[in-house]
Design a protein that fits this description.
By secondary structure, the chain is of the alpha+beta class. It has a domain of 176 residues. The protein has 15 helices and 11 strands. Strands 1-2-7-4 form a 4-stranded antiparallel β-sheet, sandwiched between helices. A 3-stranded mixed β-sheet has the order 10-3-11. A two-stranded antiparallel sheet has the order 5-6. Helix 13 packs parallel to helix 15. The radius of gyration is 22 Å and the shape is globular. The N terminus is likely disordered.
Length: 360
């Protein structure tokens, strides 16, 4: 959303910035920082171009579009001077410990950011309220809010604003909150004082690289998305490469291994947001039970969930792979055989692969 600028030159931007941070905390953000939208991003642009040239983005064609709009905010929202970055914790209370689910091949592991309601709407509403607070204080101003919803390099802007540093797994890390948080941004024409970046505290640690099930983190700060389980289970719409299926294990929506092993996540905080609480027992549920959901159950139980956007067919594809990697049992075989003639060729392919795994 944008409003016409009527910001007056006598505006005390130092006090306004302090107010913005206070409002942000009142709205549930754990931190609010400001970056210069005109910061030199030439090295970032070069790195992004090289990453795309190597094809590491896989089928995510949207990563190729928009050109330099990703790194030059004023090309996306004319007049942008600052990027306000925010973070919001998402670890729900009483959530089942991740490793315990990963070690039980009969259970379905779902990335912990997705066991509650969709974060996009939650953060956008809060960011809009923050903008409303600002306009209530100073009058109309130009802005646009984002939550993983446009060509915005959110980790890079969060890094420049001092929200944290980029870890070797490419996610943002914070000394106060680890990496279990969502990011959001507001592009604005307000000439706010900028915050200083923080130094990296990863040191020589390579735990995130070493733990990756598919070795998608090919080096520090280098991710081949084509091998990443989050990409394979969420972004990839077609068939999952056979060579990677056994490596996926029981991860049916995303993967948290690189975060689970990160020492900084001992500082991660439990969220206070009711919307991020576990729904439908998704933190501790069996693969067989999920595979038996009808399309109607999928649509109703996952209404308002980020999982719903991948669709029922892709959901069954993912669970079929999980069942193929599960310990053999009559219940697992029966669940797979029940979908051996599924109307979807994609589901049938992965079901038959899974059955073959149990016949070996």
């Amino acid at each position: 959303m944008q409003e016409e600028t009527s910001t007056n030159s006598s505006l005390d931007v130092i006090l306004l910035k302090e107010s913005i941070k206070n409002w942000g905390r009142q709205l549930g953000f754990q931190d609010v920082r400001v970056a210069d939208a005109n910061a030199n991003m030439s090295s970032v642009e070069a790195e992004l171009s090289a990453w795309l040239d190597k094809g590491f983005h896989g089928d995510m064609d949207y990563m190729v579009k928009h050109g330099t709009k990703r790194t030059r905010p004023a090309e996306l929202v004319p007049g942008t001077l600052r990027v306000i970055s925010v973070r919001m914790n998402y670890t729900p209370p009483a959530v089942k410990e991740g490793w315990s689910i990963l070690e039980d091949g009969n259970k379905a592991f779902i990335s912990r950011y997705a066991v509650g309601r969709d974060y996009h709407k939650v953060l956008r509403i809060r960011l809009q309220k923050l903008a409303d607070n600002i306009s209530g204080k100073i009058g109309p101003f130009n802005y646009r809010v984002f939550t993983d919803s446009a060509p915005v390099m959110e980790v890079e802007w969060a890094k420049k604003s001092g929200l944290g540093w980029r870890g070797k797994h490419t996610l943002l890390l914070s000394r106060e909150g680890g990496s279990y948080f969502f990011l959001g941004e507001m592009y604005t024409d307000l000439p706010l004082p900028v915050d200083d970046p923080v130094e990296s505290y990863c040191g020589s640690c390579t735990r995130c690289i070493d733990i990756c099930p598919t070795q998608a983190i090919i080096g520090p700060y280098q991710l081949d998305a084509r091998r990443c389980i989050s990409y394979l289970t969420i972004e990839l719409k077609g068939s999952i490469p056979e060579a990677l299926r056994t490596l996926i294990g029981n991860r049916v929506y995303g993967c948290d291994d690189c975060q689970l092993v990160c020492p900084w996540n001992k500082f991660a905080k439990i969220t206070q947001e009711a919307d991020f609480a576990v729904r439908n027992g998704l933190d501790d549920i069996s693969l067989v039970e999920l595979f038996q959901w009808s399309k109607e159950e999928f649509e109703s139980k996952l209404a308002g969930s980020p999982i719903r956007r991948i669709g029922y067919e892709q959901w069954l594809r993912n669970i079929a792979v999980g069942l193929g990697n599960a310990p053999s049992s009559p219940a697992v075989i029966e669940a797979l055989q029940a979908r051996n003639h599924d109307p979807s060729p994609l589901v049938r392919e992965h079901v038959r692969w899974a059955l073959w795994q149990h016949e070996k």
